[in-house]
UniProtKB/TrEMBL annotation:
Protein's name in the database: AraC family transcriptional regulator
UniProt keyword annotation of DNA-binding present: yes
SMART domains: HTH_ARAC (SM00342)
Signal peptide extent: none
Record carries keyword Electron transport: no
UniProt-listed Pfam families: HTH_18
One Gene Ontology molecular-function label: sequence-specific DNA binding
Domain HTH araC/xylS-type: 186-284
PANTHER family hit by this protein: ARAC-FAMILY TRANSCRIPTIONAL REGULATOR, TRANSCRIPTIONAL REGULATOR MTLR
Alphabetized UniProt keyword annotations: DNA-binding, Transcription, Transcription regulation
InterPro entries: Homeodomain-like_sf (IPR009057), HTH_AraC (IPR018060), HTH_AraC-typ_CS (IPR018062), RmlC-like_jellyroll (IPR014710), RmlC_Cupin_sf (IPR011051), Tscrpt_reg_AraC-type_HTH (IPR020449)
Segments traversing the membrane: none
Length: 290
């Protein structure tokens, strides 16, 4: 079976600009599902739609669009695909030293620099921030030269002063700095992505990593700050959230379609992660969307 390591993505700034600003219409960002990394910091705005995001070892579900900040060389894949039903996606990419290595040492840049340090673990912003940034990012994208740069710094500043965000990879996370870990751990990530609906044993996954089970368990916990079982359960629960929100399946069918083979264990795990039952989640989600 063929497995894919995260692809290195080479990014060039827009002509006449020190950073890259891209706009993709629905389903146009065809490479978004590819597991990849790059030295550029990336700010991604998804207008409308819902889907799964995987940034580092975090797998989560978003609705009504998304706004995330992804640090340098932090592996990530897909926010949008043919099932997301988003209106558009905007991507801003810039190297940490895109205006020189010393710029972040200036006192005026202290808060932005602190935010960029946090982005090394991935950040997702709340709904109010997401809505407020849509117009500003669109205006920035349509601007040119110095005006575009100034609007970009205004966006970074507003994001740096809000408390309405969540760190996606809390605790230690080494994946972004170790190339050899990138290649090994992402064989594992891609295998889970392709086989989460099946039963995956520790013997099987440790063999994929060419390690003994005890060594693999220690290694995976060090890299991701979670056990392999927690990681797989998180992936399955995230998939179940998407099914509960978007598909007219019974909760029993959602359980098995998400890779769980025991309904009681699915309910228990769902409550541990989401703090409510699957039926309660679906009821509340449908109420909010009405």
């Amino acid at each position: 079976m063929k497995h894919h390591s995260p692809a290195f993505e080479a990014i060039n700034p827009n002509i006449g600009s020190s950073f890259t600003s891209l706009k993709f219409q629905r389903n146009e960002n065809i490479k978004s599902h590819v597991w990849h990394y790059h030295p550029e910091i990336e700010l991604i705005l998804v207008k409308g739609g819902s889907g799964k995001r995987q940034i580092g070892s975090n797998i989560s579900y978003f609705t009504e669009g998304d706004l995330v900040l992804i640090g340098s060389n932090l592996p990530h894949c897909g926010l949008t695909n043919e099932n997301t039903n988003n209106d558009y996606e905007m991507v801003i990419q810039f190297k940490p030293d895109f205006l020189g290595e010393k710029i972040w040492e200036n006192p005026e840049m202290k808060k932005i620099h602190a935010m960029l340090e946090k982005s090394k673990s991935g950040m997702v912003f709340g709904d109010d921030v997401k809505r407020a940034m849509r117009k500003k990012i669109s205006q920035m994208h349509q601007s040119e030269s110095l005006e575009k740069l100034l609007k970009f710094f205004e966006i970074l500043h507003e994001l740096s002063v809000t408390d309405d965000y969540r760190i996606l990879n809390a605790g230690k996370y080494y994946l972004q700095t170790q190339v050899e870990d990138n290649e090994r751990i992402n064989h594992i990530f891609n295998y889970v992505k392709d086989h989460f609906k099946e039963q995956i044993t520790l013997d099987e996954i440790a063999g994929l990593a060419n390690m003994k089970v005890p060594s693999f368990c220690r290694y995976f916990k060090k890299i991701t700050n979670k056990t392999f079982t927690q990681f797989v359960n998180e992936y399955r629960i995230t998939h179940s959230l998407k099914l509960l929100a978007e598909k007219p399946l019974s909760i029993t069918d959602v359980c098995f379609e998400s890779g769980f083979n025991n309904f009681s264990y699915f309910n228990k795990t769902f409550k541990e992660y989401i703090k409510k039952s699957p039926s309660q989640y679906r009821k509340e989600f449908n109420y909010v969307m009405e």
